[in-house]
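Hi there,

I know you've been waiting on this one. I reran it after we fixed the sequence typo, so this is the corrected version. Both the input and the resulting structure follow.
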Amino acid sequence: MKKIIALSIALFAIQSYAQGPTGMFGTDPITNLENFDKQRVHWGYFLGFNIYDFKFDYEKPGQDIQVDKTTGFNVGLVGNLRLMEYLDLRFEPGLYYTQRDLRYSGFPDGDEINSLREVRSTYIHFPLLLKFSALRTGNIRPYLVGGASRTLNLSSNFKSKDDNTQGRFRMKQWTSNYEMGFGVDLYFEYFKFSPSIRGVFGLNNEIIPDADPNSPWTGNVNAMKTRAIFVNFTFH
């Protein structure tokens, strides 16, 4: 997926360069989609990738839980409502796949049955964001974005009666977050392309403690909150 995204960006850059001094990055560019941002409502979709992490707060000092992060995949839709010239309201529901491996100390070397928990997550993410755009220069317009979101974890195991004693890691089904990021709108002849990067900061404790209050997996955890980075490539 990352190769496809990188290839797409390279093709866009080659196309712009090939247009010469009147291209997107030329000294006198042709203005593409001049009235696009004047629409009251417009739609799009995004593809991208994510890196999810956990932030742990502990009851008392001890060995930290190590989080091995992986790169996940995002896909979703974009609805954009123009509020005023430089301000838009955006709704970007999406499906996010990711995996984090939690490694616990205090177990014998090689005992991965107890020392490792593979947390595979499928999220439906519902962010409501404000987009603050700068003045458009030619076919380029940078912006800042921020807002709040709710996330539904389809792989939370929140209904399970089993816990880590049986090898089952459990999380709460719904969480709340705040988000901040930036991006740039690039206006091509037939569409607008918007790469962006955004940080996501969970507000709720997501861990469901084990039945044993002295559990080696959850007993010392006061709170576990999501931290994530989204890199999205949006097409309007």
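Quick highlight: Residues 35-235 form a domain with the Porin fold (CATH 2.40.160.20).

Best,
R. S.
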